[in-house]
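Contributing new complexes? Match this layout with adenosine-5'-diphosphate.
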Amino acid sequence: MGLLDKIIGTYSEREVKRLMPIVEKINSYEDEMASLTDKQLADKTEYFKERIQKDGESLDDVLPEAFAVVREASKRVIGLRHFDVQLMGGIILHQGRIAEMKTGEGKTLVATLAVYLNALTGKGVHVVTVNEYLAKRDSEWMGKVYRFLGLTVGLNLSFMSPQEKQNAYACDVTYGTNSEFGFDYLRDNMVIRKSDMVQRDLAFAIVDEVDSILIDEARTPLIISGRSSKSSDLYKQADTFVKRLRKKEIVEEDIKDQEQLDDNEKYDYIVDLKAQSATLTQQGIDKAEKYFNLENYDDIENSDIIHAVDQALHANGVKKRDVDYIVKDGEVLIVDENTGRIMYGRRYSNGLHQAIEAKENVKIAEESKTLATITYQNFFRMYAKLSGMTGTAMTEEAEFKQIYNLDVIEIPTNKPVIRIDHNDVIYKNEAAKFNAIVEEIKATHEKGQPVLVGTVSIDKSEKLSSLLSKTGLKHEVLNAKNHEKEAEIIAQAGKYGAITIATNMAGRGTDIKLGGNSEYLAKQEMRKNGCDEHLIEQADSFNETDDEEVLNARKQLKELIAKYDDEIEEEKQKVIAAGGLKIIGTERHETRRIDNQLRGRSGRQGDPGESVFYLGLDDNLLKLFGGNMITNLLNTGNVPDDMPLPPMKPLSIAIENAQQKIEGRNFSIRKHILSYDDVMNVQREEIYKERRMVLDGEDVHDNIVGMIEDSADMVVDTYLPEIEDGTVNKDSLRAEIINIFNTPDFDALNQEKINPNLLKEEIKMKSVESFNKKLEENGEEFKEVERILLLKSVDDRWMDHIDEMDSLKNGIGLRAYGQKDPVVQYRMEGGQMFEEMVNQIKLDVTKYCMRVGKVQNMERKSSVSIESSGLDRSAIDNMNIEGEASQNIEQARQVSQSKQQPVVNNGPKVGRNDPCPCGSGKKYKNCCGKNA
Ligand code: ADP
Ligand code: MG
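Output block (do not edit by hand):
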């Protein structure tokens, strides 16, 4: 057994060895499974479920038999029998690890094993792919096997309705992209009704191309932004109203007697500059009712108005122009009270900024703000079990371990790799290098050997393409704009004499078959025979149907594929004779992984092949990291431009070192981003937990009672120093108490000398009593009101808080902190802000609950509206990197950033005749919308 020979030494090899007995066990079931009828085979699913869900057997117990069932089903349904190495990969996935398996080893099929086994728990397995085209392809292709075995399969796409998504998530297996799974999680924590949530618990995810997703894409957090649903008109109205009022300003602790109380009646609101508060008097409240045409100002339904008026009072009464803020070019800018400096870009939260803008009669900014964010790291860490597969994970082993606690196991290839990897070929400069590459392509092409050329950017692809055109060489260029078209081009890249140019991002998910792709040729012939595109698509789909026309088309396609398979076999032999697929890299990429991916395109499943990288001394990587060596090389040799330099080991080592350095740097950038998000994560989890409790319809009455009691402590404690030294201004204390507890009716407040503890206890007792009475009077229905009020308070404050945390993060990244670690600062300040927010929520809840009367027709209303979901580029932009290579990193980063495409999915619903958003180029109704 060739496989066994290799088993010595490394961690992976030892781990693989441990899998052997399991593989043998699986194999031992093969004959038994083959003897079953289709029905008997499918019935195994119920049988396993019973063993697991009822008899409490572990997944490991049933693994060998279950894997044997999947293999047999796959053989019958899609004609693929899992290789032994694929069984190994499946076990590794099930164990929650990363299976490194080379391109073309059939990872799509590997996933079926772990998916099936884990779906038996009934908890739902997610298969995560890099784009929606692949999600759809794989879910249909592999879906046949699952469905045959009685599992349900769902596809989660970005433009689906919540209902469609719910259905997809309810399935045993759900395919989708990383960003969509992440956004759904964030959106689920913004809904106001449980019935609007789409995801179930995050149980098990298998991430395909796991390095792309958990490493490369993890540099940019997911972000949802939107705006508050409060209108700017309301701020203007409130401002106009407040400007008409008579204000009393308490500067000193003034007179505190009856005289003053009488005096107060002449005023509409009282401002206490020391306490920084502004509150309506009864007279002011009367006026508000008239102005806003309200029956009872304090009614909970008027909370938006009350809020706007409160902020307008604060803006007009407390905040002073040119002290607290300045107005410049139609903008309200905050002045830092400590330094007197203007804090550009900062805004007061919770509507105060808008109120000041109304006061100053400048445009009220309807700025969109961050409503929710999460990094991929923290999202994927939430899965109870996580696993992944890719051709290239080893170089990032440390990061997978540290960040995700995933270990990487290299699975041997099904057949030995016989590809020849040549030494680097080095030229003095890019121009010489490109000329040499063109020559090489030409020679290779003339031999009939197909060649795949990798470039590091689209720019370079185009440059090379025009050079080839000048030489008259026909070629294809992949530009990664259309995933399906690209898949077809790649499929043909192994034809005799084919020339294909790709940037490193291109071509994932499809492998290159020598001699060409029979499926593609078969479809082309169907097209030529006048078969319409829709039917071809149907012929190539795997969904169940009894449509005669479709069934016929499928039969026809199958026959054509068989015919072309024969033809291709001949061409394949010619290609093999010519040396198989040749890979030419035109430059080293900043990470070894991307180079390896390019190389790995050749030599799949034991095919012959070659790979070679061409370098120029003026390549970015060499310029940045080559140092003196390059200059020396340039000066010493008298090699002409059009000759390659002699092979140089030190240079190749230098490059490898440079790549490792960049990889390390990139890792620290990601760790840095993550450490910020970790601060947020603790807060996010706390709030989301609270929200879920409300959404789940749990009884929150006791929680609210606790909040009311805390509020009593907070309000009194704010005034405590003044109470203790006898300088308290009873009016403003009273006003604040009315503001929160909706009544001044406390004996302890009317004493000559206030006893803070008695006051607290009295407020607590009376407020809780009146709150309990509301529950008694209104009955169970009141509990829903309680939930609505809690949810509203949490959401209002939380959304503001996220946005402030965002500003804080950006600010801290830019602020010079001397020796202080910005992350530590962020954690400290962020923690304080969170605590303040929690206190504000308690006060808000108390305020609402002390005002809510009978159960009115209260409805849950969202506090915000989502504008867009995308990736948070600023997370990298604001990163502060110190140290020697920071500039190099900066450049390297710009290169790689320009390659990333933003994901935004706020688009309108797609029409049936619109192009399908998955990028296939087909009409929606013929593509993803087929079953919609
Ligand atoms: P990877 O993702 O590992 O690069 P794919 O899943 O795209 O590979 O599969 C590559 C090709 O290998 C596909 O055409 C698939 O049909 C084929 N393949 C996978 N597994 C098997 C198998 N057990 N037997 C035969 N062909 C297989
Ligand atoms: Mg794949």
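Reviewers usually confirm one structural detail per submission. For this one: The radius of gyration is 34 Å.
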